[in-house]
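re: ur question from earlier - yeah i can do the single chain one, its not a big deal. heres the input i used so u can compare w yours
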Amino acid sequence: MNLSGKKILFLSANFFGYEKAITNRLQELGAEVDFFNERPSDSILSKGIIRVNKNFYFKKIKSYYQKILKQTASRDYDFFLLIKGETIPLIFLDKFKVLHRSAEMIFYSYDTAQEYPKFLKLFPYFNKNFTFEPQDAKQYDLHFRPLFFINDYHKVAENVELKYDVVFIGSAHTDRYLIGEKLRKMCDAQNLKTYFYYYAPSKAAFLLKKVFDQNLKKFNLKKLSFKKLKHSEIAAIYAESCSVLDINKPFQAGLTMRTFETLASGKKLLTTNSDIRNYPFYSEANVMILDRNQLKVDAEFFKSNFKDINSKPLEMMTLDSWIACLFFKDQDDYWKKHHLTFQKS
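and the output i got, formated as tokens:
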């Protein structure tokens, strides 16, 4: 895989440093990467306005993207990569395509079209559209490519004394807190040791979310943390745990990044996402599927060792494989072949 001398314009919302990991790896592969945050600002107010009604913010968005066009106009790009696409104006894409006619346009989504209907307007602008959501891939005829893990999580420190049976580290949203607290009480009743870390960028950001998300009304603010953990810190906590809890958004079937990081770490996974059964790396020995409406925890699950994942599925879960899929050859012949959604009429 060689991107030597290739020029890439990369736009993405900041998402827990993964955009930096992608940028760094593209550069290591020889590419010249110009990265811009898809949002004009990551301030609490800006994020809130964009989510609720970005028309109020349109002048700032328009001005921000005009500056990007000016800064990049003289660059002869080989690729344009967009991840997320929540904020980007369609007029920017129109102008970019005129200025950079030979650039291959690539779009990747780690959210559903149900949550972000704007995606349907973005698809026609791109040569290749990828999604982590199997149902979207089938319904809109998109390339299907799940997420990945970064090297921080690959085979985290072995022979480390285990402190916890179940660990959860994640953002406070939807019904995560309600499910997490129910599960923690069940674990306590079975003498299973737990560690829960609910994250929010700030108290103000959380209170803003609380206005629109009824699930957060019962959230105990004392259990909320405002320090964003580094990937190395998260990996170190995983190393001390038997398993990691994953609570996906209720309307989302695409697998979270946590899924891949957990399994790559050699740790067992508890997840509310039953769609994991359709993936080639699924194993009952490693994965306990939870019903978010009728939670049950089987203590026997924690008594057996993690079953190593075969080399091919593990390789396909890496960041390098994700990059190869987007920039070189799609992997539909692998991911769609191994996912039951695409076998059903």
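The domain at 7-147+319-343 is CATH 3.40.50.2300 (Rossmann fold). not sure if urs matches, ping me
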